[in-house]
Amino acid sequence: MDKSVNLDALDRRIVAELQRDASLSNADLAERVGSTAPSCWRRIRALEEMGVLKGAVRLADAEKLGHAVNILCSVRMKSHTSESVDAFHAFVEAHPQIMECYLMSGEWDYLMRVVASDVADYEHFLMRNLLKHPSVGGASSHFALSVTKFTTVLPVGEAGR
Fold this sequence. Notes:
By secondary structure, the chain is of the alpha+beta class. It has helices spanning 9-20, 26-33, 37-49, 82-94, 119-130, and strands spanning 69-77, 98-103, 110-116, 136-143. It contains 5 helices and 4 strands; from the N terminus they run H-H-H-E-H-E-E-H-E. A hairpin with a 6-residue loop joins strand 2 (98-103) and strand 3 (110-116). Helix 1 packs across helix 2 (26-33) and helix 2 crosses helix 3 (37-49). The protein is elongated and about 55 Å long. Residues 7-68 form the HTH asnC-type domain.
């Protein structure tokens, strides 16, 4: 099911600029996208109502906040009952070091990106939290040596391409 919306060129420029810098003033945004401030304001409100634009955030530097280690952790569930899945989802939401979590196809059930201050910090999370969860049957961890690319900017070309 395609849930995408059709955006015109100006809407796409607005979305692209706001993804790069959500702190732009309305006047600066209008200048960058070649529009007027009132038109930009109306379009931003419409994009918010359509659900295209959601909350504005500031990105923090993980290393400066003591989270220098990125781990990709695959998780296998013991059970796939709705109670087990709900309990696991609650676990994920309750642990802020889990940055992302995806239900997967294939051999593993979930893939998570976890941040930690160091290997010992992750070992503590893995052994005392994740593997002790009653729904979790196993996990496999892969440590990122460096970050080649990290972005939160989605492509907004023609028709979302």
